[in-house]
Amino acid sequence: MNRTRIIMVLVAIALTMSVASATDWPQFQKDETNVGWTTDSVPIYDPAIEWSGDVGGTGHAGMDVVPIVAGGKVFALNSSGWLHAFNVTVNPGTFKWKSDCTPITGGFELSTPAYNSGIVYVATSAGNLSQGFCRVTALYAINGTEREHKTLKTNYGYQLNTPVTYADGMIYVGDWNGSATSTTGSGTYWCLNASNVTQELWSYTPNRVCTGYYWAGAAVVGDYIIFGDDTANVTCLYKNNGTFVDYINIADRCGCSSPVENIRSSIAWNESTGRIYFTASKPDTGYGTGHVYAVAFDDTNGDLGGDGATGGGACAWNNSINFSRSTPVYYDGRIYVGGAHRMYSSPESGKMCCLHETNGTLIWQWWHSTKGRVQASPAVSVVNGRKFIYFTTNVNNGSAYCLEDLGNIYNERWEWNPPYPDNQYFLQGVSISNGTIYCGTDYGRIYALQGHFDIHIWKNNSDPKNLFAVPLKSAKTTLAEFVGGDAQVDDRVYKYDNSVGYKSSRYDGQKWVRPERVEPIGPGIGYEYQRNGGETFNITNTGYLLKSVSTSIYGNLATGDSKNLVGLAALADTNLSEAFNGDAQVNDMMYRYVNGVGYRSSRHDGQKWVRPERVDPIEPGVGNEYLRGGQTFSWSYDPYNV
C-alpha cells in the first residue's frame, strides 16, 4: 500500500482580542489601571528559553523591574540605570542598544519604565541610599538616543522607586527617602509632560510626614490619579493639575493599625466592580503582617471609601495574606495576589492566593514553605475561558511558575528555574506579549520563555517519511528557519493544496530549492517530509499554544490515496474512541509509527475501533496516519483543552 505521510504544521491563528488583548505590555501591569491580564496565550507546558540577554549584574539586584514590551522591542532596566533594548519581532533576542539614564552609578533601581508612541520613559535614582539623584529620561525607542531628561531631586537619599505610569500625554512617578527598614521624610508625586519631560505639570507633597512612595504605583482612572504611601494613605488627585480630591487611611478606616502597614503595591482599578485593589504590609515579626484591600472608588467624583466625605469611608473588605508587595489582579470575580514571609528571615515561604472579589474570602492558595516569597505581581493569561497565573519567587534559586485556576482548586502546570549561574533571586515577576513570557533576574539576565516541543522525525529506510505536529504559534514560517539546520541533501517537503494537489521543495545541501511552493508554513495545512536517509532527527519548534485549529483530512479519490497524517498533539482526548468516534466511518484506519517496530494500525468497524490500544495514546510529537474510507471530513482540536 502506498502510504503518504502528511506533516501537519499547526501554527498561528488569530485570536479574538479584547481591551486587555494580545498586544504589547508597555508599562507595569500592562496599562494605566494596572489591569495585569491579557488574552495572549503563553506557555502552559514546560517552557523553554527562546532567547536570553545580558543586561549587567553579578548576582545582586542586576535586574529588579519587570521588562516592558512595545514597538517590536523589549526594554530592561538594570541596577546601574542602563536601559537595554532587544528585538522581539524581527530576529527575536537581537541586542539593539543600551543607554545610561543616570549620571551617578548606583546599585539598585526599582522603577519600571513606560512606553508610548516610540518613546521610553525611565525613572532612575542612582540606586544608592547615600546618593540622591531623581531623574526622568525620555529615550527614542528606535535607537536609545536621549530626547531630554528632568532632574527632580538631588537631596540626600531620595529615590524614584515607583513604576512610571503613562496616561493621556502625561507621566507620573513618586519618590521616597529612607533605609532598608524605615521611611524618613515626606515623598513627592510628580506629573511631567510626556511630550517634554522637562515640563513639570504639577507635584504633590502631602502635609504629612513619612509618606514616601515605594513601589506605590498609580492608577489613572478618568479624571483622577490614585496612589498609596508608606503611612497607609490612599490619595486621589485630579490627574491634570494635582488638585487634592480625597484620601482614605486604611489604618484608621479598615481596622489594620497594629502595626500601621506600608502600601507598597500599585493601585489596580476595575470599572465593573467600582473598586480599587492593593496590598499593604509591615515586616514586624514572624511572617510579617500584610493584607489585600478592596476600596470603593467613584470615578465620577473621585470619592474613596464610599461615603462622599474627605478622609472618610471604609474598606469594602480586607484579607490577611502575610507580608506582601504584590499588586492584585482582578478577573471574572476573582482576585489574584501574592503573599509571603517577610524578608531577612527564615523560612522563606510564599503564597499565591485566589480570592472572591465580593468579600475577599479565600478560594484557593498555592503555598510553599521553602520555594520563596511571592513579592511579584501576578500576570494573568485568559485563553478560551481558562485562566493561567504567572509569577516569580524572590528567593535565592527562585523560580517562575504557571498555575491554572480550575475553580475551587489550582493546578501547578510548571516551574521554571533559570540556569546556573543565574539561579538567584527572582523578584519582580513577568510580562506577557505575543505569546512570550519576559522576565529578569538579580544576576542581570533577561529571558524570553515560550512553549517548546521536540518532534521526532523517524527514519524508515523503505519509506523515510513521517508527520510532525506543532500546535504552536511560531515566528518560524519558512523552511530555512524551521528545518534548514537539520535538513540533508535531497530531503523534500511536500505541501498539499486541496485544489492543486502536491507541491514540493528540495534541499540541495545549502538551501531549499523553490521554497515558495510550500511557504509560508501555516495553520491547518498538510505537509509531508521525506527524509533522504541518514539518522533520525528532531525538529524543535518554540512558540505558543493557540485557541483552536480546524484541519481538513483530504480524500484523494482519483488516486485512491485517501489518507492524511493527523497531528493530534494537544487533545484532552488521547484515544481513538474519544477523538474520532463521532466522525469515523466503516473501514477508516489509523496508523501509528513506532521507532524500531514500524506501523501499527486500528480499524473502525462501524461501531468501534478494533484494537485501539495499538495506536493509543495519541500524544504530542507522534505521527499518526488516517486512512479515510469515505469522503473528506474535518477534525478540530482545542490545545487548551488539556
Descriptors for this entry?
642 residues; mainly beta; 3 helices; 49 strands; disordered N terminus
Architecture overview:
This protein has 642 residues and is mainly β. The protein is globular and about 80 Å long. The two termini are 35 Å apart. 55% of the residues are buried.
Summarize the structure.
The protein is an all-beta fold. The protein contains 3 helices and 49 strands.
Shape: globular
State the share of residues found in helices, binned by percent. under 10%
Tell me the β content: 35-45%
Overall pLDDT: 80
First-residue to last-residue Cα separation:
35 Å
In total, the number of strands is 49
| Poorly predicted ranges | 1-21, 453-473, 535-539, 541-572, 630-642
The assigned structural class equals mainly beta
The description of the largest β-sheet is: 6 strands, antiparallel
Question: What radius of gyration results from the CA coordinates?
Answer: 28 Å
Number of helices: 3
